[in-house]
Design brief:
Elements: E1 2-5, H1 10-20, E2 28-32, H2 39-42, E3 47-50, H3 59-63, E4 68-71, H4 81-95, E5 100-105, H5 115-130, E6 134-139, H6 146-149, H7 153-156, E7 158-161, H8 172-185, E8 191-195, H9 203-214, E9 219-222, H10 225-234, H11 239-253, H12 263-268, H13 275-280
Parallel strand pairs: 1-2, 1-4, 2-3, 4-5, 5-6, 6-8, 7-9
Helix pairs in contact: 1-8, 4-5, 10-11
Length: 287
């Protein structure tokens, strides 16, 4: 049996749909905080179990019988993600899970300026120490984030960032499908697996692409980080959120998102969606 956490969210929800195209529903169970939100899956024959990382007592039963467990990372930037992940890993160990597949990030590293990257690195250490077989799905930075990271460039003709660097922008939909393919095959490799698009454009290159697509000038402006945070706050963004986002740009500048890997395309059997296609609004290829 495959148990999928976070199956009412965008990433693992899409993975669940891909699995239902490949496997009988009785081979799947979803472990979610609010079972009512997974009624659409229960109606199709998927077992629905309650699981909340913040309620460790709920986890062992939710993970029971899992030959494979798809463990989604915590998404609340204000939470202690590593503590939540520790509870999940300990529960997986207690439940005797056959293999954990964890949704990590390409930039997982204890020295990254981007907070989630440090959390992912710490979680991978927890998995390595658990004694369980595990795979860390180091997904590239999700390309749909460009919609808000680049700002209103179509109207303003400007992209303002506090630092520039290469990022292997990767379609979340492609990462979800890849996870399903690995789970369905039962052949996930041990340890980290990097899943990215083929290219890692800088923000300057994205600005050039945006200009080409729109037929107008699009200027990249790199401003001092303190000024960028102040401008974000002045525009109405909470300062903690602005500083959280700043870490992304600083990590890009230092190369934490620069690597690309052919593994995603090889799994999908096609080229992964590109940042250019994201900017152009090209539909996601059918899986």
């Amino acid at each position: 049996m495959i148990v999928i956490t976070g199956a009412t969210g965008a990433l693992n929800g899409a993975t669940t749909e891909h699995l239902l195209q490949r496997l009988p529903a009785e081979r799947l169970a979803v472990a979610v905080r609010d079972p009512a939100r997974a009624q659409h899956l229960a109606d199709r024959g998927v077992r629905v179990r309650r699981a909340d990382y913040a309620d460790p007592a709920s986890l062992p039963a939710a993970f029971a019988g899992a030959e494979q467990l798809l463990l989604v990372s915590a998404s609340d930037p204000a939470a202690d993600a590593v503590a939540l992940h520790r509870a999940a890993v300990e529960a997986a160990t207690a439940a005797g899970v056959g293999r954990v597949l964890y949704t990590s990030h390409q930039g997982a590293h204890p020295g990254t300026p981007f907070g989630p990257g440090r959390d992912h690195a710490a979680t991978e250490e927890l998995l390595a120490a658990s004694g369980l077989p595990w795979t860390s799905l180091r997904n590239g930075f999700y390309a749909h984030s460009l919609g808000w990271l680049l700002g209103p460039w179509r109207e303003s003709g400007r992209i303002v960032v506090p630092a520039d660097g290469p990022v292997s922008w990767t379609a979340r939909e492609d990462a979800a499908e890849a996870a399903a393919l690995l789970l369905a095959s039962g052949a996930a490799p041990d340890g980290p697996l990097t899943l990215t698009a083929r290219e890692a454009p800088t923000f300057a290159q994205l600005a050039a692409t945006a200009a080409e697509l729109s037929g107008r000038d699009v200027e990249l402006e790199v401003v001092e980080p303190g000024r960028w945070v102040a401008d974000q706050v002045a525009a109405g963004r909470p300062e903690p959120v602005a500083r959280f986002t700043l870490g992304l740009y600083l990590a890009a500048e230092r190369g934490f998102f620069a690597g690309v890997d052919p593994a995603l395309g090889e799994l999908l059997g096609r080229e992964p969606r590109t940042a250019r296609e994201q900017l152009a609004g090209t539909p996601v290829p059918a899986g």
